[in-house]
Amino acid sequence: xxxxxxxxxxxxxxxxxxxxxxxxxxxxxxxxxxxxxxxxxxxxxxxxxxxxxxxxxxxxxxxxxxxxxxxxxxxxxxxxxxxxxxxxxxxxxxxxxxxxxxxxxxxxxxxxxxxxxxxxxxxxxxxxxxxxxxxxxxxxxxxxxxxxxxxxxxxxxxxxxxxxxxxxxxxxxxxxxxxxxxxxxxxxxxxxxxxxxxxxxxxxxxxxxxxxxxxxxxxxxxxxxxxxxxxxxxxxxxxxxxxxxxxxxxxxxxxxxxxxxxxxxxxxxxxxxxxxxxxxxxxxxxxxxxxxxxxxxxxxxxxxxxxxxxxxxxxxxxxxxxxxxxxxxxxxxxxxxxxxxxxxxxxxxxxxxxxxxxxxxxxxxxxxxxxxxxxxxxxxxxxxxxxxxxxxxxxxxxxxxxxxxxxxxxxxxxxxxxxxxxxxxxxxxxxxxxxxxxxxxxxxxxxxxxxxxxxxxxxxxxxxxxxxxxxxxxxxxxxxxxxxxxxxxxx
Length: 491
Description:
single chain; mainly alpha; 23 helices; 4 strands; globular
């Protein structure tokens, strides 16, 4: 179990620090709670001051009655739980990829194509060689330009339900390497000496997918759709992200997807047709009656055209489900704390909302007298924001907190700063925790699989928190080691 602390430092900057990695016997909520509390207590942390907790949506973590977040709130009642935003976004994407039949079939076929092409290191080498030859030919024809960092030879990437952003990267890799992928598949089909009948059959099936107009259409449709949410996915994984700005990013992504739904069809179909013409892929007559290739023809199939199927039943339905799922998983109305705090960065501060936020969610952090003073500070801040250039340009809660500290106005608006710090402490995603587990793979290799938990945790601490580790010089470490006990040799 990886433990990460999130706090706002003296300069008003959000920090997320890796604290420790703890071995647990099982993943039952009670076991995780005991292990977490024992570790925090051993470091003399005041658990009563915890003001936020963030995990994924697993029932043992997010359970309302017996989950870890519920057990933590029994001892720290104001440690409000936030389901990881990046995890929610991935769940929304996976949900759409499973609920829309052609999209679900596309991702299944995409995985199959990549598995066939990248099944061995030999095929991987063939793929990269074909890509290098293609780049060389395009450079000679003058269709692409050379330069530092350009025209890199890449490979196909696999998509995974638990890897954030992997679906988008997988789609982009196939679009970039579409032609060379077909070349490799042709080579497998034609090589009867080194490939078995089963291998040639799999390559033939994969090649058939790449010749399908529907496959190419969904490939470009999902690329356009995920391009809108990829910026959101990357933004949610930043350590310095605050929860109110994260909700604004989600709103922007919804608007962008809605614009794509209403106005993006013409540009999408142009890209698909151009792609099909470039690679000689057969296109259906969009005005002809639709006939399904997935099941036996039905009478109702002839009631609408191919264009209706691709535009309404596939393009619009997929986007409608994506937008609906984002609305469901990122509903601000269901998180009253966020809706009340959102006015702090708006042009007009709703003083009553901020006071209600403090009274309802943080009653132990403010006295009644401080709440009355908070009203006055909010009114003064609202007036000063119209005059002060720096304050008028503030767009996020994090900017407001840092600006108050940098300008020295945090003494005048100390209660406003306290509200900012409380809201900024709420976690947005578990990306830092996930990075901790990724770092563990570097140290706990097959040759070092028996290393102790303390050694593993200490090694990970130095690796993850490089910013702090770089502040120590070798001489100070030698002196501290020498002072532990007497040494025969001179250090």
